[in-house]
Amino acid sequence: MKKTLNINEIKEYLPHRYPMLLVDRVLDWEDGKTITAIKNVTANEEFFNGHFPNKPVMPGVLMIEALAQTAALLSFLTMGQKPDEKTIVYFLGIDGARFKRPVEPGDQLKMEVEILKVARGIWKYKAKGTVDGQLALEGELMCTMRTTDDNAEK
């Protein structure tokens, strides 16, 4: 089975589009266990215009979002299904988030996510991002999947 995904294949699993799609390629995954993906950080990213004009740095919340998108990909790949237009992945929380080095234009953020636990529809992951082998950020993420029908008022 193929264990990589290009950007067009990633779009089949994630509803995000530019500028919020923050995963460029999946390098490898193991069903129910781990995934490794990358985000190529370029000077053309819209957020660098204001964060910060004289010293561009990728915002921490976007690095966390990139990890969460990578985690969602792992969940869908593990379940062996692609989401439909009614499927929404909600980011529930993060524990122990730590930022260790800035991520700047020209960097490649390598994201590694591991499933820790799945219980009652809540997925918990251990996640980290590195640049050139140096730890940039880490934390434990929690997500859940719902359909828009789950949210309909009765």
Describe this structure as you would to a colleague:
The structure is a single chain. The protein is an alpha+beta fold and 154 residues long. The chain has one domain: Thiol Ester Dehydrase, Chain A (Roll). 16% of the residues lie in helices and 40% in strands. The protein is built from two helices and six strands. It has helices spanning 7-10, 60-79, and strands spanning 25-30, 34-40, 87-99, 108-119, 122-131, 134-147. The protein has a six-stranded antiparallel sheet, with helices on one face. A hairpin with a 3-residue loop joins strand 1 and strand 2. It starts with 6 loop residues before the first helix and ends in a 7-residue tail after the last strand. The mean pLDDT is 94. Keywords: Cytoplasm, Lipid A biosynthesis, Lipid biosynthesis, Lipid metabolism, Lyase. This is 3-hydroxyacyl-[acyl-carrier-protein] dehydratase FabZ. Its EC number is 4.2.1.59. It catalyses: a (3R)-hydroxyacyl-[ACP] = a (2E)-enoyl-[ACP] + H2O. Belongs to the thioester dehydratase family. FabZ subfamily.
